[in-house]
Amino acid sequence: MQKLPKSFYLRNDVVKIAKELLGKILVTNWDNEYTAGRIVEAEAYAGEIDKASHASKGKTKRTSVMFEEGGTAYVYLCYGIHEMFNIVTNKNGIPHAILIRAVEPMEGIDIMLHRTGKKVFNETLTRGPGNVGKSFGFHRSQCGLSLQSDELYIADDGYKVDEKLIVASPRIGVDYAGEDALLDYRLYIKGNKFVSGKLR
DNA sequence: CGACCGATCGTCT
DNA sequence: GACGATCGGTCGA
């Protein structure tokens, strides 16, 4: 398994990067607790002009990591409860990010069950960004961490997603963003059980 | 199944 | 002081 190189994250087209992340493997290894899963759903947030993005409010204490060079983690607290994991992309000064919304577990399922307090393994374990954050042990203290680190990275095991199964749709929960809420910036693998929302 | 609602707190106004 | 890039439980059909 190869870690995706830093150059992968520094490119301009955040939607294209989000699409390429489908089928890649998310790995966290905090305190030697190894968990891994295949990314099956992601959403792109395209900088200051994107009203759905936190970066549209400008550079603040919370969003400053998005303005730094890509290839790092942006983790924030949502609704006071959920730790959400995003990948920062593009070069210094352009606040692009990709929210990982769903993952298909591959390794460390027992650890994920323990972290979430769930008793049985089913599709709700890593379905939706809040559940991904919990299962993989994300916390906002990890904000800014490099994706080249050994505790956190994205890997390619050679798996190829069938192009015909990749669907683009509007993002979820961003109705406040006006016309930007209509953009097809959400990408997912059609038919996968772990994809969130009603229509899979 | 769908609609509704409460939890819970950091961030920005 | 208001409001989320959400989730899971409950209630009713």
Quick summary:
The chain is α+β, with helices and mostly antiparallel strands. The chain has helices at residues 6-9, 14-21, 64-67, 109-116, 129-135; strands spanning 2-3, 25-30, 33-46, 72-78, 82-89, 96-107, 152-156, 166-169, 186-189. The chain is built from 5 helices and 9 strands; from the N terminus they run E-H-H-E-E-H-E-E-E-H-H-E-E-E.
Please tell me about this protein's structure.
- The protein has five helices and nine strands, in the order E-H-H-E-E-H-E-E-E-H-H-E-E-E.
- It is 16% helix and 31% strand.
- The mean pLDDT is 96.
- Strands 1, 2, 3, 4, 5, 6, 7, 8 and 9 form a nine-stranded antiparallel sheet that branches.
- It has helices at residues 6-9, 14-21, 64-67, 109-116, 129-135; strands at 2-3, 25-30, 33-46, 72-78, 82-89, 96-107, 152-156, 166-169, 186-189.
- The relative contact order is 0.24.
- It has 200 residues and is of the alpha+beta class.
- A hairpin with a 3-residue loop joins strand 4 (72-78) and strand 5 (82-89).
- The chain binds a DNA duplex (13 and 13 nucleotides) through residues 43, 45, 52-54, 57, 60-62, 76-82, 84, 86, 99, 101, 124, 128-131, 140, 171-174, 176-177, 196, 198.
